[in-house]
Amino acid sequence: MTATDTAVPAENRVDTPLAGPTLGGPTLPQERRLVTSIPGPRSQELVDRKAAAVAAGVGHTAPVHAVAAGGGVIVDADGNSLIDLGSGIAVTTIGNAHPKVVAAVQEQVAQFTHTCFMIAPYESYVAVAEALNRITPGDHAKKSALFNSGAEAVENAVKIARKFTGKQAVVAFDHGYHGRTNLTMALTAKSMPYKSGFGPFASEIYRAPLSYPFRDRLDGVMAAKKAISVIEKQVGADNLAAVIIEPIQGEGGFIVPADGFLPAIAEWCRANGVVFIADEIQTGFARTGEMFASEVFGVVPDLITTAKGIAGGLPLAAVTGRAEIMDAAHAGGLGGTYGGNPIACAAALAAIDVFENDGMIERAREIGVILTERLGALQAADPRIGDVRGHGAMIAAEFVDPATGEPDASLTAAVAKACIAQGVIVLTCGTYGNVIRFLPPLSIPDDLLHEGLDVVAAALAAA
Ligand code: PLZ
After folding, report:
1. Nearest-CA neighbor of 335 among 131, 159, 91?
2. What is the CATH topology of the domain spanning 101-357?
3. pTM exceeding the 0.70 threshold for the entire prediction
């Protein structure tokens, strides 16, 4: 089957007022093409409608409205083709509208759209659980449960850990991000914009210092000692159900902990009857050049939360982990109407096939080499880039005031804004808002990635 065979059928295509590509997925020309300024008139109209109809709290990064996406581009309502260096926040890792996902979804949606897995179960949910049990780190007996969003997976991991241990406290880390629901807001570190004014937050959540080598200058063992001391003195293992950590922090600034930090925390958890939860919602599924980032650091989590890349863009999330922990919740204690929806499961089975069999891990490593070399060269020539870090296709640059080393959020925002105006979608992140992160779809061609980085370099030079 060729890519064209699975392209969006004519009757489903989105018509744009301008001539231009209307096919989604991999049939889109892989080019940066600006036919209007950004935003163009159609996008501006839609941005205005959005402002009138959608709650103000729901923001957007790029002032364009998408009509198609695939490979390494997003096409907007005016026919502009923008280079995508964000994958919808690490979701379309295998590429937008990947032909295998499109085919699987089309087949499933015509069979049945929903029965509720808790009412009349179906095979694809079980098959996704089997696949996750197989591909997540560790060869111990595992089980999985499926949910709709990353935050919901995190909530359930905490429920399961509490039930298993009979304890209540949960430790999360400085700069951590785990979601926007009430419990996950409590776990998330940053107040603005995620938490401010939305309290009171869930109780029994404590925060430990993270290893942040660029800023704390500590080796992993020292940073772990500091964190463990806080956990022991301020919480106590007797009260602690779980420690939750992103192996590489996403929203917090793509912070890579120093070597030895994660293994020391995981080891302390094991020795103290505390469930070690790796939140791999952003780092999972080949993104870091390993199937899961825990493998980068040689840790085997007790529980792992996944979402984002798992289903090629359809909403699906999971908790996977040691069978005895996963089975601690009583029958009927876990679930939800839509969790493990059959269309999302069909998409996930197709996506996992692509991750395992179509060279995605190797591709993430190749992209990592390009990103690291290009950003490293920029850093060598420009002291405003204080740090370049990450793994695989998850790389970031941290911007600072060269005189003081202080975070430079306004420079970061200016560079990101200029990139978007030039047709390159980049995302910022970081507790101090001074990090630009690169999360391209692994389907992006090399020349397009280079062109995107050229635009970033020009934007930085002009800023
Ligand atoms: N855990 C590690 O990265 C989602 C959030 C974007 P949901 N990150 C993107 C935003 O501003 O809302 C995320 C994550 C990690 C949990 C989550 C939450 O996943 O699917 O957004 O609920």
Report:
1. 159
2. Aspartate Aminotransferase; domain 2 (3.40.640)
3. yes
